[in-house]
Write a sequence for this structure.
């Protein structure tokens, strides 16, 4: 069974109600998930399509099928290790273990094949809503946040705010209908997951991203997307401008450009990132460390989200000793470099 997130930011946990370990990911508004287990009950074969925004595996890479074995986030999730102020021990996985506290929770799989538990109240999976949403066109929130209002005027009632990367739906394709100008705000009517109609400024929205076939352009856009998070605080499991972790930053930088990479800080078979020699790293590629990942900027420089005291968020760093942002600890522990090219 498919469902749509009806919460602006829906925390996803490795185990239901396990707030001690903290969130593993965040399901953004309007994105579709597959229900794997509703409380104590299984939903069946779990092979239903969960395709949504930015699922393509990458430029020139084989697209992993939705029916492929899910990549478990369990014990293989590094947990952002040393970058999380020293208390980020390796995260144990949820596997199939039952906690006895599943009431009000459902286990889901995201369109980018990440699994975990979310509050049932944060999903909308009424059959009528599903049928209606299938006839609408998706657009992506491209601003840091987007307010959905009850009417096309700035003083209208606020329905909700949704973060960058969320999916809103309209009755016609965004790229064909709307013309955005700096001096003439244009309102867009959107349909929310619960069926309500709301309005937002067209400048907050963009078409569903597709990976460009131009390598240089793609690399530039990945770096540009990463830099929009500069100064955002570190949040374990986060991937919005309210807070983001290291793998969330890497993931969103690609996601906003039409490519879904593995959500955690490692190279995972079946996903588009593959290992490359360090000397081949270019802007937009990834540096991997024990429990940590950073987006390369070129010349050994990078941007990353770190919980290190004094940084506490998205900052620049470098592997070059003569650079002001040099991180000797990371330079000494580089484990791999990755690229989709």
């Amino acid at each position: 069974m498919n469902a749509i997130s009806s919460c602006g930011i829906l925390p996803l946990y490795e185990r239901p109600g396990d707030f001690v370990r903290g969130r593993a990911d965040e399901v953004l508004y309007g994105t579709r998930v597959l229900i794997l287990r509703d409380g104590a009950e299984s939903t069946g074969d779990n092979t239903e399509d969960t395709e949504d925004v930015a699922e393509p595996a990458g430029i020139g890479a084989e697209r992993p099928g939705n029916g492929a074995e899910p990549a478990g986030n369990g014990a293989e999730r590094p947990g952002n290790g040393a970058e999380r102020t020293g208390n980020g021990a390796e995260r144990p996985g949820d596997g199939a273990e039952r906690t006895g506290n599943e009431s009000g929770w459902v286990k889901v799989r995201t369109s980018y094949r990440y699994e975990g538990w979310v509050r049932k109240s944060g999903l909308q999976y009424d059959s009528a809503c599903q049928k209606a949403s299938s006839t609408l066109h998706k657009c992506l929130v491209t601003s840091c946040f987007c307010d959905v209002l009850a009417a096309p005027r700035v003083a209208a009632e606020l329905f909700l705010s949704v973060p960058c990367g969320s999916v809103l739906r309209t009755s016609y394709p965004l790229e064909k209908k709307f013309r955005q100008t700096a001096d003439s705000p244009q309102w867009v009517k959107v349909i929310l997951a619960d069926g309500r109609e709301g309005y937002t400024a067209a400048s907050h929205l963009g078409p569903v991203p597709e990976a460009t076939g131009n390598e240089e352009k793609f690399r530039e856009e990945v770096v540009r997307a990463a830099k929009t998070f500069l100064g955002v605080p570190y949040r374990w499991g986060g991937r919005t401008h309210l807070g983001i972790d290291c793998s969330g930053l890497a993931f969103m930088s690609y996601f906003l450009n039409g490519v879904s990479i593995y959500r955690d800080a490692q190279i995972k078979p079946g996903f588009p990132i593959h290992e490359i020699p360090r000397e081949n790293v270019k802007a937009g590629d990834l540096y991997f460390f024990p429990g940590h990942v950073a987006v390369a900027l070129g010349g050994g420089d990078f941007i990353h989200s770190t919980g290190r005291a004094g940084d506490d968020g998205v900052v620049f760093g470098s592997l070059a000793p003569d650079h002001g942002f040099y991180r000797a600890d990371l330079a000494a522990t580089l484990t791999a470099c990755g690229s989709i090219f």
Observations:
- The chain has three domains: 2-125, 130-207, 215-339.
